[in-house]
């Protein structure tokens, strides 16, 4: 059985299930081996992150260092920073 890739704080994900299906988001916290907290800074704000099962997310190889560092240093991140990280990812994907 292949070892599952572990999610990282600041990692970009695409939602595969639920009403946010197809939208990118950023992992804010890893709760356990099954669940993470995500937000996109737009519809899903940092103040009210969504608890998601990892089976319902596609992990992207990009990890936003800005978001990860901000969460590590101050324990929080701004919605603008999340939107910026997602925008940067979308632009890079489109190149």
Structure notes:
The protein has a 5-stranded antiparallel beta sheet. With 95 residues, the protein is of the alpha+beta class. A hairpin with a 4-residue loop joins strand 2 (24-30) and strand 3 (35-39). It is built from 2 helices and 5 strands, in the order βββββαα. The model has no long low-confidence stretch (mean pLDDT 93).
**How far is the first residue's CA from the last residue's CA?**
34 Å
Shape: globular
Beta-strand percent range: 25-35%
* Major β-sheet strand ordering: 4-3-2-1-5
Q: How would you state the average pLDDT, rounded?
A: 93
Number of helices: 2
Give the % helix.
25-40%
Question: What characteristics describe this protein?
Answer:
alpha+beta; 95 residues; five-stranded antiparallel beta sheet
């Amino acid at each position: 059985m292949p070892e599952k890739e572990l999610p990282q704080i600041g990692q970009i994900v695409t939602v595969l299930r639920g009403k946010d299906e197809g939208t990118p988001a950023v992992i804010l916290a890893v709760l356990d081996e099954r669940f993470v907290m995500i937000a996109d800074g737009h519809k899903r704000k940092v103040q009210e992150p969504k608890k998601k099962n990892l089976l319902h997310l596609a992990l992207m190889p990009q990890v936003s260092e800005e978001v990860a560092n901000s969460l590590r240093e101050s324990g929080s991140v701004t919605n603008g920073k999340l939107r910026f990280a997602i925008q940067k990812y979308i632009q890079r994907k489109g190149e």
